[in-house]
Amino acid sequence: MTDTKQIRNFCIIAHIDHGKSTLADRLIQKGRLVEDRDFQDQILDNMDIERERGITIKSQAVTIPYTAGGGGEYELNLVDTPGHVDFSYEVSRAINSCEGALLLVDATQGVQAQTLSNMYLALEHNLEIIPVINKIDMQAADIPMTKRQIDKDLGLDSREALLVSARTGQGVDELFEAIVKRIPPPAGDSAAPLKALIFDCHYDPYRGVVVHVRLFDGSLKKGITVRFMSNGAEYEVETAGVFKLALVETGGLCAGDVGYFIAGVKTVGDVRVGDTVTGAENPCAGALPGFREIKPVVFSSIYPVDSNDYEELKASIEKLKLNDASLVYEKDSSAALGFGFRCGFLGLLHLEVIQERLEREFGQSVIFTAPSVKYKVHLRSGGELMVDNPVEYPEEGRVEGAEEPYIRASVITPTTYLGNIMTLCMEKRGVQTNMTYLDEKRVEIVYDMPLAEVLFDFYDRLKSISRGYASFDYDISGYKATELAKLDILLNGKAVDALSQLVFKGSAYDRARTVCERLRDEIPRQQFKIPVQGAIGSQIIARETVNALRKDVLAKCYGGDITRKRKLLEKQKEGKKRMKMVGDVELPQSAFLAVLKSKDE
Predict the structure, then answer these.
(1) What one-character-per-residue DSSP string does 49-67 give?
(2) Cα gap 497→391, rounded to integer Å
(3) CA-based nearest residue to 131, from 148, 140, 83, 142
(4) Which residues on neighbouring strands pair with residue 473, listed in sequence order?
(5) Closest listed residue to residue 219, CA positions, set 174, 253, 267
(6) Nearest CA-CA partner of 253 in 350, 188, 158, 339
(7) By CB neighbour count within 10 A (0-12 exposed, 13-18 middle, 19+ buried), where does 367 fall?
(8) What is the DSSP letter of 181?
(9) Contacts of 76 (CB under 8 A, 6+ apart)
(10) How far are the Cα atoms of 295, 339, 407, 479, 504 from residue 378, in angstroms, in the given order?
(11) What pLDDT score does 66 carry?
């Protein structure tokens, strides 16, 4: 076992696309963890969806052996983190298991919104921060400007900043030395009772739950019995080890180590991220503080396409919850779609990722309903309801008023795009509260805006308006009064509960028209006309019609008296009338997805 003084635990934090995963690649290559012929870019991003989108979704840990310049063998435990605001919970968990952080700043873009918020997260946990200026090999790199921003915007000493190029590997050796010298070794006593924090888990179909832990005190060996402190469940450790891209068995872990253990945990519900693991014979005095309870901001229901797959979907969501602690779910049902789950997400990208992971990793075919936020509804009787599902919204007559969640949105942008971005924020009902010129080229604007407006296409439009240069970060600021309406979608006169939405009254007409137009293009034509209507209460505010297919009943009728043709046409008319009375319209899955997409998609 390694001496605690020879261990360094650190994470890489930065804004999106500032080169965290590429830098992790260079560190892994230098540590010779993988042969050059087996190497691939973004080696820690092991999900297909991460590779396709070019983003990190899960923070991944890896142990890198390093021999320092002055001699001495070190074990560097690196955690690569996501940059997107939807996955900031992953970042907070990674930070909890480290003593230091490399704060990456892109030399071509400078300090961005997420750079700031991730730095504050690291400061809250008293981490040693090493500023690193990346992409110095790029033509557009402006190192003096980046250093000024590190001094002014971050309040760090730019003279301590290291210059690296994660792509070419320039400056990586100096970075290794700085990690060893500037990041403190973990404090902890290997002789004390076992105290370890679960910071992640994943499910292995052959071995059960693989628990990722950071040991603060004590040691963990094969054969000992451990106890999870949140629920008292006890298991015998079958194997323990470290992450070296694959799981490498070492037989045990000691204080300060980051690693994993397998204890034949088959009951998925027993393991909770943020829980403390201790020895069953010699338990520690108290549990570690764990992580902040996560509050989802976007809600949507998931249903299996085939209602017989409900049990399979339930098992899949439980296993996914192990690996993504920020997913919140409860049982739900719908008249149109049967049994499913009401889920809470941290944002729209999080929702998309969960949907893709359910389909790819667990082979589930699922339907998602339109995303919604949590509203406070005040009733005339004096009560108050929290509503995130349109089905639970009370009748108009019982509602006194409603409040919706607001966010404090901070956008950092080059001054060139300022006008267009302000127009976008005003269109989304935003109210400007602050504007600061960070330097002659960049400005930070702060808006109060409703969370519901940011859900659909705000982020995509912000990126296209600013050609990718503007950065966006937000936190929930509280609730404000709003005018709320429940928009029902009627097909052939019947309301489809899974398509109902809660919308701001001012934009209800536009929303209803958009949904009706999308459904008109998606619903297969029948032998009779299908009206697609948007309604608030009993008032219809939008309508589209899916035209009928006309079967040519006169094909076999040639020549003869005109009355023969009339008779056939009358018969067809009668049939269509009867069909319309009993005809239920089947909604294809693509129709539910079309409602969620923005116009351009």
Answers:
(1) HHHHHT---S-EEEEEEEE
(2) 7
(3) 148
(4) 410
(5) 253
(6) 188
(7) buried
(8) H
(9) 8, 10, 27, 31, 63, 64, 65, 66, 176, 179, 180
(10) 22, 29, 21, 13, 16
(11) 79
What letter represents residue 483's amino acid?
A: E
* Lookup: tokens for 229: 């402190």
The residue type found at 356 is E
The percent of residues in the chain predicted with pLDDT above 90, rounded, is 0
104 φ, ψ (degrees, to nearest 5)? -85, 135
What's at 215, amino acid-wise?
L
Q: What share of the chain is helix, strand, coil (3-state, %, to 5)?
A: 30, 35, 35
Q: H helices then E strands: how many in the chain?
A: 14, 31
Q: What is the pLDDT of residue 348?
A: 75
Q: Are 518 and 594 in contact, with CB atoms under 8 Å apart?
A: yes
Distance between CA atoms of 376 and 386, rounded to whole angstroms? 5
Q: CA-CA-CA-CA torsion for 44, 46, 48, 54, nearest 10 degrees?
A: -10
Max Cα–Cα distance, the chain, nearest Å: 107
pLDDT at 601 over 50: no
Place of tokens 């105290």: 195
* DSSP secondary structure letter of residue 142: -
The model's pLDDT over 1-48, given as tens digits with 9 standing for 90+, comes to 567 788 888 888 887 777 777 888 787 777 666 666 555 555 555 555
Whether residue 597 has pLDDT greater than 70: no
Question: If DSSP states are collapsed to H, E and C, what string results for 296-317?
Answer: CCEEEEEEECCHHHHHHHHHHH
Q: Per residue in 402-453, pLDDT tens?
A: 888 888 888 888 888 888 889 988 888 888 888 888 777 788 889 898 888 8
Q: Which amino acid, residue 504?
A: F
Nearest to 82 by CA among 109, 104, 55: 55
In contact, 252 and 221? CB cutoff 8 Å: yes
The residue-averaged pLDDT of 552-556 equals: 69
Residue 516 in tokens: 């009706």
Which two three-digit tokens encode residue 488? 């029902």
Three-state SS at 404: strand
Contact between residue 532 and residue 516 where contact means Cβ atoms under 8 Å apart = yes
Q: How many CB atoms are located within 10 Å of the residue 431 CB?
A: 12
Q: Where are the alpha helices (DSSP H) in 7-151?
A: 20-30, 48-53, 88-96, 113-124, 143-149
Angle between helices 310-323 and 348-361 (to 10 degrees): 120
C-alpha dihedral sign at 249, 252, 255, 261: positive
Q: Catalogue all structural domains in the chain, each as residue range(s) with its CATH number.
A: 4-182 (3.40.50.300), 195-279 (2.40.30.10), 298-368 (3.30.70.870), 375-482 (3.30.70.240), 503-596 (3.30.70.2570)
| Pairing verdict, β 442-450 and 431-437 | antiparallel
Which residues, in sequence order, are bridge partners of residue 386? 376
Quote the Cα angle for 219-225-230, to 5°.
90
Tokens of 364: 């589930």
Location of structure tokens 């004390």: 192
pLDDT digits (tens, 9 = 90+) for 424-435: 888 888 888 888
